[in-house]
Each structure stands twice: as C-alpha cells, then as structure tokens.
Design brief:
Length: about 325
C-alpha cells in the first residue's frame, strides 16, 4: 500500500476537523502567543492593594489623628489582610469602627478587604461613607473604581478612577486600576499608557509590571513583555501567571530551553496545571522529544479526559513517530 504524505498544515487542519476542535496556535503562524489574561494562582497579598497605603500610613499621610484608635491594632489588621487572613482582619476593623465610625483609613481598609472577598456592595458602602466625609480622598475613589469593575459597570468605574487621579495625579494605584478598566473596554493603547505612568511613579510596583506585560504580549511587543515578566519574577518567583506567559513567549520565539525552564518551574508549584502540561508537551514535540511529549499529553488526559488539544497533539506525535520509524 502506498502512503500519501501531506503538508503538516493540512494534516493539522484535518485532524482538528475530525476531533471537532480548533487548530492550536502553536501549529500555525501567529503574531502573538497565547496567554493567561489575569492572575489565576496569586497570593492574597498580591491583590490591587499592593500599592495602597496601609491604614496606619494613611493616618499620617492625611493628618487624621488616631485619637482612640490603636495603631498597634491597625498594624495587626493590615498584617492579617496581607497574609490573606481576612476574617481576623475584619474582626479588628469592625472593632475599631465601632469605637470610631468616621475613621476613614479603617473604612477604606475594610472596603479593600470586602473587595478582595468579592463583596462589591459592602466595599462600595464603605468607600461611599468615606467620600461623604472627604470627597477628595483618592484611595476611596480608586476602591470604588475596582469595586464597580467587579460589577461590570465599566463606565462608572472609569469615572471613579478619573476622580481619584483628579484629586491625586501622582496616585500610581489609580493609574494601574484605570489601566485595567481600559483593557476591559478594549483600549490596549490607553491601558499601556496608564501602566507606563504607574511604574514611572512607582518603579517597584510589581503588579503594574505584570498587567503591563499582559498588554504588551497581546500587542506583540514580546521583548518588552519578557522584560516585565522577568521583573515580576524577580520579586515574586512563584508567580505562575508570569511563568506561564513568559514561557509562551519563549515558545513563540523558538527559545525552547527557556520556555521549558518556565514550564518546569510552574509545574513544580502546581503539578497538575493542565494548560502547562499541554504547552510543555508541545514544546517537547517541536523539539522532537516525543517520549517526553507523550508523558505530558498522557498526564493531561488523566486530568481532563475531554481535552481536545491534548488528543490533537498526541495524535500528531504518533503520526511523527510513524513517519520516523515506519
């Protein structure tokens, strides 16, 4: 029997049509690699509050007297919040507000906590209380921006971010927040300008580098995105989204060892991350390390029996093995 050898591009499309899935990006020419659009495995203290002042710092910055508030308690609450122990932090914030209901720094801190827990309504209530007491308070406007975004009220969120920057043009967290809103509205260039301004004002603002990396990667600015992800990983070595996205860029640039190093590092942190196994397997396949590729694709199908990308790519490995040894 004669065998007919077809171009790889056609083979890929035929297999894809057979299994009912789209052609994977790595098998076709592409101007931009796939990416994870937002942090999926990120510690609680890497939330948007990274650059927001702690409640004790806000007191000093705004010249609000602590009066009966215990600065030690505030510091404890902030520490709990940064570690992700929201329940313990909330108990302290509630106690302090029971003693002094107009303590705007505590109201903002509690609002931030509610927002991190996904309770936008309670967060907005705290921020609105602050703005009734001080309509110029930028952290409350910024908090409103992010909470409104959680409700998909993007126009209102953008207005709130603009209010924050109107009252404090040097507030880096508000630029970063507005960048997120502009991304969500599809204006990547405006988002990039906001992230640029955020890191200009705060060169150590790691979260702004991460989000700027997302936009740069999507725009095909791969070297700039690599620099930002590398900056993030210098501060947060276990940031899985930065590892994944950087690995994807390296793969797109055919820098296989660098891509493999990032995927290996990610899987050391999250051993059963399906997407990373798929991409590492593809990385092996493209280097013709077929045995290693099959290990990854087999693992994916143990974790996710319906994963079309793994079936497709494993089929491509089997085809290449038949071509090599038949």
């Amino acid at each position: 029997m004669h065998k007919i050898w077809l171009p790889w591009s056609l083979i890929t499309m035929l297999i894809a049509a057979t299994v009912g899935c789209t052609v994977p990006a790595s098998s076709l020419p592409s101007s931009a690699p796939s990416q994870r659009a937002q942090p999926e495995v990120t510690e609680a203290n890497r939330d948007e509050t990274e650059l927001e002042s702690t409640s004790t710092e806000v007191v000093a910055a705004k010249d609000y007297s602590p009066s009966e508030m215990s600065l030690a308690q505030l510091a404890d609450a902030d520490a709990f919040a940064e570690r992700g122990d929201f329940a313990a932090a909330l108990v302290i914030y509630d106690q302090l507000l029971a003693a002094e209901p107009t303590a705007i720094n505590v109201l903002v801190a509690r609002g931030n906590l509610y927002r991190q827990q996904g309770d936008a309504l309670k967060a907005l209530a705290d921020y609105d209380t602050v703005l009734q007491l001080d309509a110029t308070y930028a952290p409350a406007h910024c908090g409103r921006c992010l909470s409104l975004a959680q409700q998909d009220r993007l126009d209102d969120a953008l207005y709130a971010c603009n209010q924050a920057l109107l009252n404090d043009p040097t507030y880096a967290a508000a630029y970063r927040a507005r960048g997120e809103i502009r991304e969500a509205q599809g204006d990547d260039n405006a988002a990039l300008a906001d992230y640029d301004r955020a890191v200009e004002l705060a060169p150590d603002y790691t979260l702004a580098y991460l989000y700027r990396g997302f936009v740069q990667q999507r725009l095909g600015l791969f070297q700039s995105a690599l620099a930002d992800y590398t900056n993030v990983l210098m501060q947060w070595p276990d940031e899985t989204v930065a590892l994944f996205n950087r690995g994807m860029i390296y793969s797109t640039l055919n820098q296989w060892p660098a891509a493999q190093a990032d995927f290996n590092a990610l899987l050391a942190l999250v051993p059963d991350d399906v997407a990373t196994h798929v991409e590492r397997g593809e990385n092996y396949r493209l280097q013709k390390q077929f045995d290693l590729a099959l290990v990854d694709f087999d693992r994916v199908l143990q974790l996710d029996q319906g994963n079309a990308a793994a079936y497709l790519r494993r089929g491509m490995v089997y085809f290449e093995l038949e071509y090599t040894y038949d």
